[in-house]
């Protein structure tokens, strides 16, 4: 859902029990209040990013499609797709001949990644138990997949979460199920910036809202 920055900022101020006082000060043009609002606004995108990276899948929304991505696939069924520049987290990827999709991607630091280069088909991923890895190559950030039955397979499903940004209309895209956690995470980041030790309490609340 798209939430206005002003609305989310106000919700953050409510979360840190400052809303009523700050609203009065803001109407009077208080410089400290304007400064606080600026700090909060500067933390919103970071807060949403942190929460949506950590959140369980059931709290996330459907995401953005990248099914029209540039597909590279070999005769052995192994291949990769070039990811969008704003790619943050994989939600779902499935090739046309797979029996099930992949919801979580590994990285090159994962022990499982090295097995994907094995010449033994029983060791690396397959159409019945596929594996995806997000890695950086000369082409950019890519999603490697292991493996399809042949080089004729196509992308059937491909969705991801982009990095959150404040758009031209002053809105930010936040998964509805993650909104309260993101508000408290922004409160934590803002309080930490101004040296308030309550940032830890806000962080704990944010994490608890994702369980």
Outline of this structure?
This protein is of the alpha+beta class and 211 residues long. Helices cover 35% and strands 22% of the residues.
Give structural attributes.
211 residues, four-stranded antiparallel sheet, three-stranded antiparallel sheet, 6 helices, 9 strands
The proportion of strand residues reads 15-25%
Fraction of residues in H or I helices: 25-40%
- How would you classify the helix and strand content by structural class? alpha+beta
Order of helices and strands: EHHHEEEEHEEEEHH
What's the layout of helices and strands?
Elements: E1 2-4, H1 5-15, H2 19-27, H3 31-54, E2 64-65, E3 71-73, E4 79-82, E5 87-95, H4 111-115, E6 131-137, E7 140-146, E8 155-162, E9 171-173, H5 179-193, H6 199-208
Antiparallel strand pairs: 1-9, 2-8, 3-4, 4-7, 5-8, 6-7
Helix pairs in contact: 1-3, 1-5, 2-3, 3-5, 5-6
Task: Describe the protein's architecture and organization.
The chain is α+β, with helices and mostly antiparallel strands and 211 residues long. Helices cover 35% and strands 22% of the residues. The protein contains six helices and nine strands. The chain has helices at 5-15, 19-27, 31-54, 111-115, 179-193, 199-208, and strands at residues 2-4, 64-65, 71-73, 79-82, 87-95, 131-137, 140-146, 155-162, 171-173. It has a four-stranded antiparallel sheet with strand order 3-4-7-6, with no helix packed on it. Strands 2-8-5 form a three-stranded antiparallel sheet. The two termini are 20 Å apart. Residues 19-28 have low confidence and may be disordered.
